[in-house]
Specification:
285 residues, twelve-stranded antiparallel beta barrel, two-stranded antiparallel ribbon, 2 helices, flat
C-alpha cells in the first residue's frame, strides 16, 4: 500500500472517532490515584491420533498484561500506562516460535488550564523480550533482540480531550532508535559509509486514543500514533493498534487484535498483524 493511500484512511478515522464518542458526555474525574492491572491468557491446543482426514498437532499460548496508573489533581493529571505481550506457537515437529513479543510503557503529564485543550509533556519506550528470527526452510537467522531495536520518544505540545473515551495530542518530539547487533535496517543510514547504531530524529508526533462500547458487550480500544521527522511527509511512521474485546463471562472473553505499522526505514510496504484469541481475564487491581 502506498503512503498516499494510507493517509486518507488515517485522517478520516481521526475525524470520525470523536463523532462516535459524542454520545457519552465527559464526566468529572475523581481526584487522586486510580490504578488498574489486567491480565489475559489465551491457549489453543489441537491433537490428532489416527485421524483419517489428516492434520497437524499444534499448541499456542499468549499472555497479555495491561496496566494503568493515573493521578488527577486540581491543576494537573499524570497518566502512566504499560503493556506486556508474549506468546509462543508449536506446530507438529517444528520448534516453538514466538507469535507475540512486546514491551511498551508511556507516561504523560498534563497541566490543566480548565479547558478542553491543555499543554503536556510525555515520554514512551518500546522493545521486545527475546530474539526474533527470520525462518527459512532449513535455517533461521536472528534479526532482533531486547533493546535491539529499542524505541524511545519524548514530546511536548497540547492535548485535546472533548469527551470521555476520546483524547488526542500533538507536539514536537524527539525519537531515538537504539540498536546493538542489528543496526540495519532500524538505525543505520544507508547514505553514509559508517554504520550508525543510534538514530535520533526531531519531528512532530500525534497520538490519539479512543475507547467505546460499540455493539452490545463488545469494547473497541484504539490507539493511533504518528511521527514525522522534519524531512517531509514521506518520512511519517504510523502505528495503529486496535483491540475488539467481547466479554463472555466475568473471567472469559474473546479478543481480536489488529495492528497496522508503517516505517519507511524498516520496510517500504505497510506491515499488518492480526490475532484472535479466546482466553481467561483477571483484574489484579
Amino acid at each position: 500500500m502506498k503512503l498516499r493511500s494510507i493517509f486518507p484512511i488515517i485522517f478520516a478515522a481521526i475525524i470520525c472517532l470523536p463523532l462516535f464518542a459524542q454520545e457519552a458526555p465527559k464526566e468529572e474525574p475523581k481526584m487522586g490515584w486510580k490504578n488498574a492491572l489486567v491480565g489475559n491468557l489465551g491457549v489453543t491446543q489441537t491433537n490428532f491420533d489416527n485421524w483419517a482426514q489428516g492434520g497437524e498437532n499444534s499448541f499456542a499460548w499468549q499472555l497479555n498484561i495491561n496496566g494503568e496508573a493515573r493521578n488527577i489533581a486540581a491543576k494537573h493529571k499524570w497518566d502512566n500506562s504499560g503493556k506486556i505481550s508474549y506468546g509462543m506457537t508449536k506446530l507438529a515437529g517444528i520448534e516453538s516460535r514466538k507469535s507475540a513479543d512486546e514491551i511498551k510503557a508511556e507516561s504523560v503529564f498534563t497541566y490543566l488550564l480548565g479547558t478542553y485543550v491543555n499543554p503536556y509533556v510525555a515520554a514512551k519506550g518500546e522493545t521486545q523480550f527475546t530474539p526474533g528470527y527470520d525462518y527459512k526452510e532449513d535455517s533461521k537467522t536472528e534479526i532482533s533482540d531486547i533493546l535491539d531495536p529499542g524505541y524511545f520518544t519524548e514530546s511536548a505540545g497540547f492535548g485535546y480531550e472533548p469527551v470521555t473515551g476520546f483524547k488526542t495530542r500533538l507536539g514536537f518530539a524527539l525519537k531515538e532508535t537504539i540498536t546493538r547487533n542489528f543496526p540495519v535496517p532500524y538505525a543505520d543510514d544507508p547514505e553514509t559509509e559508517d554504520v550508525e547504531k543510534i538514530k535520533i530524529e526531531p519531528g512532530m508526533e500525534s497520538v490519539t486514543d479512543f475507547t467505546k462500547a460499540i455493539i452490545g458487550n463488545i469494547l473497541l480500544t484504539s490507539k493511533l500514533e504518528m511521527f514525522s521527522n522534519f524531512k517531509g511527509i514521506k518520512e511519517v511512521d504510523v502505528k495503529w493498534d486496535n483491540i475488539f474485546t467481547a466479554k463472555l463471562t466475568q473471567y472469559m472473553n474473546v479478543n481480536l487484535n489488529i495492528k497496522f505499522f508503517y516505517d519507511r526505514d524498516v520496510s517500504a510496504r505497510r506491515q499488518l498483524m492480526q490475532s484472535l484469541a479466546l482466553g481467561l481475564t483477571y483484574s489484579f487491581l
